[in-house]
Amino acid sequence: MFEKITFISDSGANIKIREGGEVVEDLMNLHVLFEDSDKKVVAEIENINDGIVGTKFLGEIANGKFVTGIIRKPGLNSTVRIITREEFAMLVTQDSEEAILLGYSPLYNNYPIRVNVNDLFSNHLAIFGNTGSGKSCGVASILQNLFNCPGFLPYNANFIIFDSTGEYKNAFSKINTVDPNYRYNLYSTSDEITDKAEKLRIPLWLLTVDDFALLLSATSHTQIPIIERMIQLVNIFQSPDINVEAFKDHLIAKAIMSILYSNETSAKKRDDIFSILISCSTHNFSLESEIMGVGYSRKFRECFVIDSLGQFAESVLITKYVADFINEDFDDLVITKTNYFTLEDLEVALNFTLISEGWLKNEKTYGDAVTLKVRLHTLIIGGYSRFFKLDRFIDKRTYLHDLLFDNNGRKYQVINFNLEDVDDNFAKVLAKIFSRIVFDFAKKLEQRASVPFNIILEEAHRYIQNDNDQFLLGYNIFDRISKEGRKYGVMLTLISQRPVEISDTVISQCSNFLIFKMNHPRDVDYIKKMVPNINSEIVDKQKVLQVGHCVGFGQAFKVPTIIRMQLPNPLPQSTNADVYARWTYRHKQQEEEHPGQNPLPNLNMRPENADLANHS
Question: Domain 120-192+400-564, what fold?
Fold first, then answer.
């Protein structure tokens, strides 16, 4: 087949094809072996032009094993041939019980391609490709192969999927039929919960200041201390060990006293005090509270009548009454224990936060404070408040335990959060909150990385972006996990059709890549620049891939490899709509069954389309 070597460079060699040899089209992307008396060099065929084959050196076969990279190049007199099936196995197959089937080689008669479990799953993985190129099926196939692997029982696996489009609802529902030890759990954001899914709920008290900043869409650094104080107050208000009513009286009294001793006019003071009592009130401090004087009583609002001198007629009575509720011991009160609270409790705490001295008269922070107040109230009265409604206190360890185990103590290996019923911004916040909870849990384990988590982000470009987090909080949780998560056992899998929209930091930390067909020039160019260890040859390969085929490279692969992924069973719900079947109706059949009638109302339609048919 090959006549002779015509040229050798630092990275490859050119070979002349013997006339009358094989059809050259069959040689593309195959591997050849340059064999001398003392070395065997493996190269990949990259191009064929006018009977000359261009190759790129990949590594050497030494002592029956393939080693990436070469030290000595082959000589001009080396023997050149296509590698054998056994030699190809050295390039792509992991012969151990720690390897799983990834797919098959379309170039070598569907030879099985296996990868080491640690090499693939203990590193960050990125899966890119056009819509419809086979990404979702590829992910489902990989996990199904993992759980179908003979002799290997990944009982303690923790795959957490954030599914923005509901594609994986059924893909892993039958893993318990493979082995009764396997279990799958689905959490849904939909109000219409079936027996196949649980309602998604998040304990508010597990959220940090940073989480609330994301939840309330904070944009300014001045909002962070407001949120911190709000969390402190809500824990004090819900503490059974504190006289909460007296503490609230103390806060209101100090706020009123600061206004009374300000330089404002009496009318302005009255308006400010009434505003406080409208937003924050107790039995002792409300507009209708009774204040006892010497031989008479007044309602609190009646004490603020302004006399002819422009002063409060009952200023002495007001001052004495308010001063009696100030308790300096409360100023240093700190509660370290976390308590149960609701969004409504949080709103009360925020109102009391905003009347305190630090923000009451601060015009610079007034707008930021009002923004937080409006957003919190919008959350309370909106539909998303349902995700934070729990009827009992639960700590972080118990909450994670309940996510990972059923009521009988049986382990879930795959937990799917179906986020298709919330908008992208809220879905992103939920994904960040859950990822932060998992990451903090993993960091505090006594034995580092003893409970690994694999977080899978479908449509990752919706979640992992260059957001305001870095400016506001000093970090982005996905950036942090990408840089530190590996050593704590928290790994990311990114699935996206738009890698250009994903954070550069996260992509740069990925060790393995599965690249399906991509056409958009911006995405292709971005992959060339940002993906580690990629070259123009790999980029060129993915452009001509068929659906369900990808190029795999990275730590789990000895050489860049074209892989044909298996179709998973069950399939994820990611296929195109069957337009032909949905558009077509059997007019003749309807006419025979109902002569002379409009056939549209009698179509075999989905229930959601019934109103449309009847209206027609």
Answer: Rossmann fold (3.40.50)
